[in-house]
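Tokens as discussed.
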């Protein structure tokens, strides 16, 4: 099977979140299963500082964008440690910018134009590179137009007739919404600007377009696949998703243990595994305390968070609990993230007030992200919603007991430590449900009670987590099955259209 994976982010080339981790590691796992797969992404400025070798293929092409012709060219590299090709769509006016989508909190005004260009360029690249393709795997709104172009413009183009599309939703909240006149930039006929296809409440919506036109839709956990069909989590697209409910499924993201494994992680002061974590984590905790300027207190529980400082991540629950608990001086906190200004201010203030107990770094640092996973006792993910979540899986491997809200991929992967799950050996963290600071603090209190008073139980929870296997192998198998199902679906839809 020949697959093209189209995406706007791939680690280590350009990353703002989990999408990049998935698109950097899933193709390698699929290649290992025998699939022929390549990746196509925009040549953002960041790819040049990734340290990966890039080759100019000297292939240039033109794409029509609203009455003008925009030229692009192709670059090539490989996903690290593999022979999976990755092609970059270079167009410096669109992609050589300081950030990927948003600068200083404001979306780039021409995002519709940039990603219309990218989507058309992906389809051009297939022809120019002479790629055999059975299916294009699209990811999130930046690629939402590809299934529409395939269906509307390419369905009868030789070489493209048989190409099926899978659209994976990594985060439904980011939809690529533009004013209606941007429809001109897509080059698609106005007749598709209707409530059943590309229009949503008077605006052009790339996410909806992908959902409507793709042969299959997937999300990144089973629970999120169900949640997004409800008004609570559907971000206004629940009806569209319910309408397409028979082709919606969920596959949990996997972890690339070549990158996220404390036994081999050279970003850590001390490496450790499920046999040696007690000494290993103690050394990493001491190093993290030093790094963040915290007091050297080996027995004080150290609680950590790494991620986007966005409402989605439940930052307000964390901040409120910090405000209540930090004056007691019996907890320490390690926070790494960037995002909304209000959270930057609140967290920076706590860092200033309690320098011995609260280390805050408002930046993007891969190294510190690894060191926090290794150094903290508890990892916090009180998310409002969490399509899949990777950090809780990293935490399991690094022996940082996750405290999570019961939603999306967190609900699918973390089992609350109670008498039964402890006896069964399945407990790997702590789970709360209502999105409120009281419920969060209460559950965190349960975790700390165990940490302080029941060391054997605490270690058993860590061991359970460290021994679990969340590698890509199981999920890659499910993607392969979904690709096959999607091809079948596409071909039967074609056949019924012909009959
Ligand atoms: P999301 O995709 O919603 O941002 P995930 O938990 O799925 O959340 O993935 C987040 C990824 O981004 C993880 O690999 C995490 O370590 C990384 N990350 C997020 N913010 C930062 C940061 N400030 N510094 C380093 N890594 C970060």
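Sequence:
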């Amino acid at each position: 099977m020949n697959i093209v994976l189209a995406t706007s982010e791939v680690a280590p080339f350009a990353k703002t979140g989990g999408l990049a981790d998935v698109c950097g590691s899933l193709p390698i796992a699929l290649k290992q299963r025998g699939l022929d797969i390549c990746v196509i992404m925009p040549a953002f400025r960041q790819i040049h500082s990734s340290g990966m070798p890039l080759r100019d293929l000297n292939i240039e092409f033109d794409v029509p964008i609203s009455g003008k012709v925009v030229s692009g060219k192709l670059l090539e590299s490989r996903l690290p440690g593999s022979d999976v090709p990755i092609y970059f769509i270079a167009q410096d006016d669109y992609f050589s910018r300081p950030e990927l989508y948003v600068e200083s909190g404001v979306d780039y005004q021409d995002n519709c134009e940039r990603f219309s260009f990218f989507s058309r360029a992906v389809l051009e690249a297939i022809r120019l590179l002479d790629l055999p393709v059975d299916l294009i795997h699209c990811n999130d709104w930046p690629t939402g137009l590809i299934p529409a172009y395939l269906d509307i413009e390419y369905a009868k183009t030789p070489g493209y007739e048989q190409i099926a599309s899978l659209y994976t939703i990594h985060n439904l909240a980011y939809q690529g919404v533009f004013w209606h006149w941007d429809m001109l930039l897509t080059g698609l006929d106005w007749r598709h600007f209707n409530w059943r296809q590309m229009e949503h409440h008077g605006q052009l919506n790339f996410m909806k377009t992908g959902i409507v036109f793709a042969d299959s839709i997937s999300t990144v956990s089973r629970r999120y696949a169900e949640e997004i069909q409800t008004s609570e989590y559907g971000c206004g697209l629940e009806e569209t998703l319910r309408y397409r409910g028979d082709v919606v499924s969920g596959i949990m993201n996997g972890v690339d243990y070549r990158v996220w494994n404390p036994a081999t992680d050279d970003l850590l002061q001390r490496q450790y595994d499920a046999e040696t974590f007690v000494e290993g984590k103690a050394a990493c905790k001491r190093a993290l305390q030093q790094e963040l300027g915290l007091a050297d207190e080996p027995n004080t529980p150290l609680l950590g968070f790494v991620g986007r400082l966005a409402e989605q991540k439940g930052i307000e629950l964390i901040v409120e609990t910090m405000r209540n608990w930090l004056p007691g001086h019996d907890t320490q906190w390690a926070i790494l993230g960037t995002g909304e200004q209000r959270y930057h201010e609140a967290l920076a203030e706590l860092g200033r007030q309690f320098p011995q107990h609260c280390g805050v770094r408002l930046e993007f640092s891969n190294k510190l992200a690894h060191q926090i996973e290794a150094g903290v006792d508890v990892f916090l993910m009180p998310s409002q919603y969490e399509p899949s979540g990777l950090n809780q899986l990293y935490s399991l491997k690094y022996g940082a007991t996750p405290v999570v809200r019961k939603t999306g991929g967190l609900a699918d992967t973390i089992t609350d430590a109670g008498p039964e799950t402890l006896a069964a050996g399945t407990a790997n963290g702590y789970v709360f449900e209502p999105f409120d600071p009281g419920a969060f603090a209460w559950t965190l209190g349960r975790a700390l009670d165990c940490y302080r008073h029941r060391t054997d139980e605490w270690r058993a929870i860590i061991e359970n987590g460290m021994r679990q296997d969340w590698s890509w192998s199981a999920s890659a198998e499910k993607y392969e099955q979904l690709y096959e199902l999607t091809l079948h679906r596409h071909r039967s839809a074609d056949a019924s259209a012909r009959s």
